[in-house]
Structure formats: structure tokens, C-alpha cells
Amino acid sequence: MSSSIGKKITMALTGFFLITFLIVHASINALIFYNDGGEIFTIGAHFMATNPIIRTLEIVLILGFVIHIIQGVYLWRQNRRARPVQYAYKDNSKSSTWYSRSMALLGTLILLFLVIHTSNFWIPNRIAQFKTGEELPLYAMMLEKFSHPIEVVIYLLGCFSLFWHLLHGFKSAFTTMGISHLKYNWLISFSGLCFSIIVPLILAMMPVAIYLGWIR
User: Fold this and answer.
1) What pTM did the predictor assign?
2) Distance, CA of 135 to CA of 62 (rounded, Å)
3) Distance linking the first and last C-alpha atoms of the chain
4) How do residues 133-173 score in pLDDT, each as one tens digit?
5) C-alpha distances out from residue 182 to 12, 169, 177, Å
6) Helix, strand or coil for residue 58?
7) DSSP readout, the chain?
8) Residue 31 CB-half CA count within 13 A
9) d(CA 47, CA 41)
């Protein structure tokens, strides 16, 4: 899909796939709130790390991230080229929100967060599996990592960026795919708002709860 419309559709489709990933990822992370010393979380994490179907989908997930990022950068550059001359005064507040105009910035912040997040947990765990065939103690690693306030702040900023990115991207994906109707648009907007709040909140509460000692 080399056209602008084709790239937007690809962005929407990869966005839907990444939304599914976020649901699964947040659900697994939420297992730490059992506060049972990480037993339930470890079972969930082990399943995700060893199930052959999940491991195969990881490759698709990585490709989805890459395609989503590349298409996003392309569309951002295309929009910039379409308006090479900035107006002396331009008020977009009535027609669009600041976060819809800042998707490239928010996406970049999320990408930086993902680099840090995967470097902290996913990459070391996969390397250990490849070298020794054994998984790392992810729960203990989380307790250690989130005992440092800087790490907690980084994760909170990442979740904050994710909230705004989802707030626009969720509804935008439906619109791009032509799923829009006056009778149901309110439901899409409401679902997008709930999803944009709940998922980042779960992900943000994980480091906060560990840092504050609510989870041990």
C-alpha cells in the first residue's frame, strides 16, 4: 500500500493489532496485584515466554511495531511537506486537539519508553532463554527495578504518553477503516476513552505500587 490512504489503513490495522497486544500485556502485568510473592504473575509470564504460538506472534508483534512506526513517520513527513509555509497565526483548537496534532511526538516518546522497557526485561529474558534455556526471575527484577524513583518516573511518563496517543489513535483507527456511524460513534468514542484510561493506568500502577511497598 504505497498511497497515502493505503498507509493510513496500514497504520489503522497495525494499531488494532497493537491494541490487542496492550490488552494481553496489561492483563499479565495486572497479575502482580494478587500480591502473592509473584506466584501467579510468574505462571502467566512463563506461559507467555514459552508458548510456541505466543513466541511466533512476538515476531508479528515486532513487525507490527516497525510498520506502525515507519508509516507514522511517513505520514508525518507527508503532512509537513503539504504545508511547508507556516501561517503567521493559526488556531487549530476548534477543529483538532493538541494530542491529535502531536501524535508524532507522543509516538516518539512511546518508542523511547519501549526501548527502555524491553532493555529492562524482555531482551535480557530472551537472551537468557537462548543461552541457558531458563527464564530470568522477572518478578524479582521488577521489585528491584522499581525500587528506584527514576525508573518509576520513566514508566509514568511512558504511560502518560500512551494515554494521549491512544485517546486519538483508538477512534482514528475506526474512522480510517470506515467504521463510523452517527448511531454508534458515541460508543466508539466512549470505548476509546475507557481503553485509553484503563490500560495506561494498570501499567502505571505497577511501578507505583512496587515503589510504595504495596506489593512485595
Assistant:
1) 0.80
2) 20
3) 49
4) 889 999 999 999 999 999 999 999 999 999 988 887 888 88
5) 20, 19, 15
6) helix
7) --SHHHHHHHHHHHHHHHHHHHHHHHHHHGGGGG-STTHHHHHHHHHHHH-HHHHHHHHHHHHHHHHHHHHHHHHHHHHHHH--S--SS---TTTS-TTTTTHHHHHHHHHHHHHHHIIIIIHHHHHHHHHHS----HHHHHHHHTTSHHHHHHHHHHHHHHHHHHHHHHHHHHHHTT---TTTHHHHHHHHHHHHHHHHHHHHHHHHHHHTTS--
8) 21
9) 10
How do residues 102-138 score in pLDDT, each as one tens digit? 677 777 888 888 889 989 999 999 999 989 988 999 9
Grid coordinates given for 39: 506466584
